[in-house]
Amino acid sequence: MTKITREDVLHLAKLSSLELTDDEVTAMQDELTEITDYIAMLGGLTTEGVEPKYQVSGLENIYREDEPQTSSVSREDLLALSYATSDDQVKVPKVL
Amino acid sequence: MVKQALARAKQVADYNSFLSLTEERALKRAAQIDSGEISGKLAGVPFVVKDNMLAFGAPTTAASVMLKDFHAPLQATAVEKLEAEGAICIGKSNLDAFAHGGSTENSAYGVTKNAHDTKRVAGGSSGGSAVITALDVVPFALGTDTGGSIRQPASFNGVVGIKPTYGTVSRYGVVAMASSTDTIGCFTHTAADADVVMGIMAGRDANDMTTLPNFWNEKSNSVKKSLQIGLIKETMGDGIDTEVQAAVYEYAERLKGAGHTVREVSMPTISYSLGMYYVIVPAEISSNLARYDGVRYGYRSQNATSLEELYGQSRDQGFEMENKRRIMIGSFVLSSGFFDAYYQQAQKARALLCSEFDELFASYDLLLSPVSPTPAFAIGQKTNDPIQMYKADIMTVPASLAGLPAVSVPAGVSSTGLPVGAQLIGPQKSDRLLLRLAAQLEKGA
What we know:
The structure holds 2 protein chains of 2 kinds.
Chain A: H1 6-15, H2 22-39, H3 75-79, E1 85-86, E2 89-90
Antiparallel strand pairs in A: 1-2
Chain B: H1 2-11, E1 18-21, H2 23-34, E2 46-50, H3 77-84, E3 88-93, H4 127-134, E4 140-145, H5 151-157, E5 160-163, E6 183-188, H6 191-201, E7 228-232, H7 242-257, E8 261-265, H8 273-288, H9 307-318, H10 321-334, H11 339-363, E9 366-370, H12 386-391, H13 397-402, E10 406-413, E11 419-425, H14 431-444
Parallel strand pairs in B: 2-3, 2-4, 7-8, 7-9
Antiparallel strand pairs in B: 1-3, 4-6, 5-6, 5-10, 9-11, 10-11
């Protein structure tokens, strides 16, 4: 059984862009230990020489005609979905 | 019909199966039907849309804080196609937030109660749509099924639920969960109704390149006089409620009575499918949910002083615990050092599972199993134990991983009055065969 440490949880939270609360980190440590222990069952299957199957429909490289298309959704519609805008731009906290 | 459905929806408010009603828009469309402005195969038929599918007239929340006030600027292709045939959406149904769960207890807006026992769960994640159909509010309701989210609640509430072949219905305008298994289907009272609804929604969409050319009207789906049906042995063993087993055996007897052959078959890899599912699906969830960053749309934290904090806090506050859990598992199985042992291994195991299905379909027309190991469980019973909650999906994830169509049909009732479903699974594109067989047995009932 791989024990998930507090540091592991914090590392995964960083990879996931999640600022977890202390309680969440504690809960997640036990839960992830239990879950990773469960999914480790896959190690019991012999898969030597088997090609992984990432998709099941067999469709590949489906393209549409390379022609410009119009959308029913306007720039204004999309900007209206954002919490803060200014000068037709989405506003975020200072980056630099 | 629309007014009646809206009145009934308000009458059953205690079940918490609706997140919103689209009353104003629905009544307007009903008037357009009356005046002959809109017509079609489903003219004036009311329906309900799971709240992870974009529709006009109400916000699309995905039962999350993240999308609390999200008013969609467009509608899902599936909804558009039904509206083009005159159907009228009257409301949006409750679900586990972002469709992560098997009980509709993970909703940010409260638990949906089972249509047959309000102390029990509706199942999930499409719990609201299942309960709304079972309570006779509308003749059909839409759901999404990634690992059982239509079939399991259908079974818990005693209605028909279909998860079609992967790629049957466009997912444009639907909140993405796991792109390699997400499908759109419906809940109905009869298999014949499901056939009509699915036939309208099916087909290629230039906005979703994973859609298959429409196969709904191909001839290969008629029911032969005598079908070869395999009952999957591994799904009828230990850990499966005896009343569930009894209902499935009884359904098998009825299939035999209708002239079909049922034989026990074995699928050794099936016992690994839940392990595969809880690697592959969280991996895909962690990438699909990366888009919710608090910037362009959705919930934004008010306390952030930097962009990084804005992402981290908005996501922590906007997602439910189960969403975060799955994102974290996804990050784990995709992270360096674990990728080969978990993610790659799961995709190889999935290839083995698919070959086992292929081998069986060489001799059998379709397969039979339970939908869920137990009838609907009590509200709160599994909320503190993620693994126990995940195990409720054990019968439904194999068809999802292989992209196969599967239908949940009412098969019996437990001694305590809870519905029990049986699951029919077929090869890809055999959706109509499954529904026609289910319809044949309904007539015999």
